[in-house]
Design brief:
The chain is an alpha+beta fold. The chain has 5 helices and 10 strands, in the order αββαββααβββββαβ.
Length: 199
């Protein structure tokens, strides 16, 4: 009788352990699928070019189109850069790596994916970049400007945008009547030719 109790507990433990091992293996496989790499070209001060390969973790949280072939799509890279900044505190005139103001957040996210432009204010970005076409206004990656060009964010989609809020830090914000009533307009950041944007 004692032997039967011990045997049943050993079998139950073995079953629980095997279920745990299968779950861990499945999660590990998923995580490995989320990690990829990107090769970037860096131009040194003397004009020589250097290739760098860095791991990039792609979020599965957003509905972003998949890559074509082996070329990473710009939107996935930008989303990854944004995700690494979510939750960072707001500090005026900061551009990272752990604190941002609104224009510093925008500049930092684009810079990480290879779109480098001079850091400036929301008003500077407004004057520097071309207006977004009507079909681009609520498209991922478009810049959105608020409150007399004093605030800027990055459009996620027709449902919301990302920005560095003075009170909440870097967050995803749903479009509400409050924010929609304060929109000044939209601009598109020009992309270097090696980057592609999902259509």
């Amino acid at each position: 009788m004692i032997f039967n109790k011990i045997l049943s507990r050993v079998l139950a433990g073995a079953f629980a352990l095997s279920v745990f091992a299968i779950t861990v293996a499945a999660q590990t496989e998923t995580r490995l699928q989320e990690v990829t790499s990107i090769t970037t070209t860096t131009v040194e001060g003397d004009g020589t070019m250097r290739l760098e390969t860095e791991p990039v973790i792609i979020s599965r949280a957003a509905n972003v189109p998949t890559a074509v072939g082996t070329v990473m799509r710009f939107d996935k890279l930008l989303l990854s850069a944004i995700n690494t900044r979510l939750g960072a505190r707001y500090v005026w005139a900061a551009a990272g790596p752990h604190v941002f103001d609104c224009s510093g957040f925008v500049w930092s996210a684009f810079k990480e994916v290879g779109v480098d432009f001079t850091r400036g204010s929301a008003r500077t970005y407004w004057s520097r970049f071309a207006p977004a076409r009507e079909d681009e206004k609520f498209k991922f990656g478009t810049l959105v400007f608020f409150n007399g060009l004093t605030h800027v964010g990055i459009v996620a989609d027709a449902n919301g945008f990302y920005h560095a809020s003075r009170h909440k830090g870097v967050v995803y914000q749903a479009w509400t009547k409050y924010y929609l009533s304060r929109v000044d307009g939209f601009r598109r950041v020009p992309l270097p030719s090696p980057l592609t944007v999902a259509e």
